[in-house]
Amino acid sequence: MTVEAGDVGAREVGAGETGRARPLAGPSLPYRLLELALTGLAWLGGLWLVGLMLLICCDVIGRSFFNAPITGVAEIAAFSVIGIVSLQLPETVLHNRLTRTDLLIEPLGRWLPRSAELLEGLFALAGLLVFAVIFYGSLAFLQKSLASSEFYGVQGVFTFPTWPVRLILVIGTAASIVAFLVRVLVHLRACRTGVRA
């Protein structure tokens, strides 16, 4: 029996079958909805990045040619980095695109696919636990910033409340936890079947 696996359509071909392939179950509706939601977050992060680039360019032009810099660009850029990463990370996790070295996992996947999937699953589980800790800490900071009216910037010059950025961080870490959980389940299933995810 041979198995051909892809991101969307996986096919299983029996030993005595000719011509027709029996499709395996594709992505479920909850997975597709999760993927759509995380793609939407990633798009928001991308649009935010484009807006930040335009703002910085306008500030440079205003500062260099008109001696009229835009107030608060440094503060906006500082919290934008946190927001953009928080919005784009969950989709990266879901599609297994985190930066890593394949020095060990690729050879292991060729010779011992189940072991490779187990290792991938443990990596995803470690990520889930790390982001659970980040989520817990971020939630506490969000509650604190809401209670104390905390703000970025210099009072009287430029201020911006911190709670929206902290809320985005909480949403991003929660979504990353869900994405890591999905990766754990995917790798455990692949470990059971012996087919690389």
Spell out the blueprint of helices and strands.
Elements: E1 2-4, E2 11-13, E3 22-23, H1 29-65, H2 73-94, H3 105-111, H4 113-148, E4 151-154, E5 158-161, H5 163-193
Antiparallel strand pairs: 1-2, 2-3, 4-5
Helix pairs in contact: 1-2, 2-5, 3-4, 4-5
Distance between the termini: 18 Å
Structural class of the secondary elements?
A: mainly alpha
Overall spatial form? elongated
Number of strands: 5
Order of helices and strands: EEEHHHHEEH
Which residues sit in consecutive blocks of at least 5 with pLDDT less than 50? 1-25
- Average pLDDT, rounded to a whole number, is 84
Put simply, the count of helices is 5
Structurally, the number of domains stands at: 1
The residue fraction in helices comes out at: 55-70%
| Sheet with most strands: strand arrangement | 1-2-3
Q: Report the sheet with the most strands, covering strand number, pairing sense and barrel closure.
A: 3 strands, antiparallel
| Rg computed from alpha carbons, rounded to a whole number of angstroms | 22 Å
Strand fraction:
5-15%
Subunit structure: The complex comprises the extracytoplasmic solute receptor protein and the two transmembrane proteins.
Main location: membrane
InterPro entries: DctQ
Function: Part of the tripartite ATP-independent periplasmic (TRAP) transport system.
